[in-house]
Design a protein that fits this description.
Blueprint lengths: L11 E7 L4 H4 L3 H16 L6 E5 L2 H11 L5 E5 L7 H4 L2 E3 L2 E6 L2 H4 L9 H8 L5 E6 L6 E2 L4 E5 H4 L10 H12 L3 E5 L17 E4 L2 E6 L8 H12 L10 E6 L20 E2 L3 E6 L2 H14 L4 E6 L1 H4 L9 E5 L1
Parallel strand pairs: 1-2, 2-3, 5-6, 8-9, 11-12, 14-15
Antiparallel strand pairs: 1-16, 4-5, 7-8, 10-11, 13-14
């Protein structure tokens, strides 16, 4: 049995999705975020061809989820306990050897919320599988996988001393090989400006096929991440994957500068798209760049329906569609 993590475009048994369940965290954005998550759930269960397992984190969240989605075919409300909805980071990573669990410390100690460190075990149990624990800190959004043992990550996150102090590239690669069957790790530098995850790669670069990686290109003159995007694209163009293929790099328009509540930029990214069984769901933040990104992804996924949905309220919590989901392979 291989330990390798399947590519996201491989068939899924289920798609786990977090539902905003804590009013004290989301405040005025609670109901808008719930509406965006509900729209994502419907798209996944419909054109996405997924069995959606909608995890709630409180009794009030469970009631709200049942009120909005209880009658939707393909959506199952799963009661649970979590600090917040970021299941990509708190949940297990499903490898060929089953669900793998890692220590979670609130993205380097920034947001330590009750129950988040138990989410991986809850999902594994609900999936009818045994969680294999690993004694190092890792979030799922810090990695992207091609299904053949090639892993994308960033030094800014994976080697950050607020995760695993003293880690070197060699130590990280050895840990990923043992836990997730990584055969080759491709290292990028920094992620997006103001990203509290310290540069998760699922906002910066994503595998879209064997040997093919998508990453953003700047949109608008004030794009705060132009240098990071170009640096990532240049680095990727000189890399080969675990099979020895030189990577093909495809540039996708970024959202550009998206204002936060204090008029600073927020880490909005079209790279936080989600590959479902029969669709690709793209987070949208502004009309024109969103249309360009959707059209570009349609060329990369001709066999799937590409659907753009707003993710403005979800982004106020710090992430988007990929961050709040975790696929369970078939």
């Amino acid at each position: 049995m291989t330990r390798t993590v399947p590519a996201e475009w491989s068939p899924h048994r289920a798609m786990w999705l977090g539902f905003p369940s804590h009013a004290e965290l989301w405040e005025d954005d609670l109901e808008p975020a719930r509406a965006e998550v509900a729209a994502l759930a419907r798209a996944l269960a419909g054109p996405g061809g997924e069995r959606v397992r909608l995890m709630t984190g409180s009794p009030e969240g469970q009631a709200a989820a049942r009120a909005q989605l209880g009658g939707v075919d393909g959506v199952e409300v799963v009661p649970g306990a979590f600090g917040d909805i970021w299941l990509r980071d708190t949940g297990p990573i499903f490898s060929g050897a089953g669900p793998q669990g890692f220590r979670f410390n609130g993205w380097g100690g920034k947001y330590a919320l009750e129950h988040d460190d138990t989410v991986a075990a809850q999902i594994a149990q609900a999936a009818g599988a045994t969680l294999e624990p690993h004694d190092f800190i890792l979030e799922g959004g810090a990695l992207d996988h091609d299904g053949e043992g090639t892993v994308l990550t960033t030094r800014q996150c994976l080697l950050n001393p607020n995760r695993n102090p003293g880690w070197t590239q060699d130590a990280a690669e050895a840990a990923l090989a043992k836990a997730l069957g990584a055969k080759k790790v491709l290292w990028l530098g920094d992620g997006l400006v103001n990203d509290h995850t310290d540069g998760h790669v699922d906002n910066l670069a994503r595998f879209v096929a064997p040997g093919v990686v998508a990453c953003p290109m700047a949109f608008g003159r004030a794009d705060p991440n132009a240098r990071a995007y170009d640096a990532a694209a240049e680095a990727l163009a000189g890399m080969t994957d675990a099979a020895g293929r030189r990577l093909q790099v495809v540039r996708i328009p970024s959202p550009g500068w998206i204002d936060g509540p204090d008029k600073d930029c927020v880490p909005a990214s079209h790279m936080n798209f989600l590959i479902a069984n029969t669709a690709v769901i793209v987070p949208l933040y502004a009309d024109l760049p969103g249309r360009y990104a959707t059209q570009a992804l349609e060329q990369l996924f001709p066999e799937r329906k590409v659907i753009g949905l707003p993710s403005i309220a979800i982004l106020t919590g710090g992430g988007s569609f990929h961050c709040i989901t975790q696929q369970e392979p078939a």
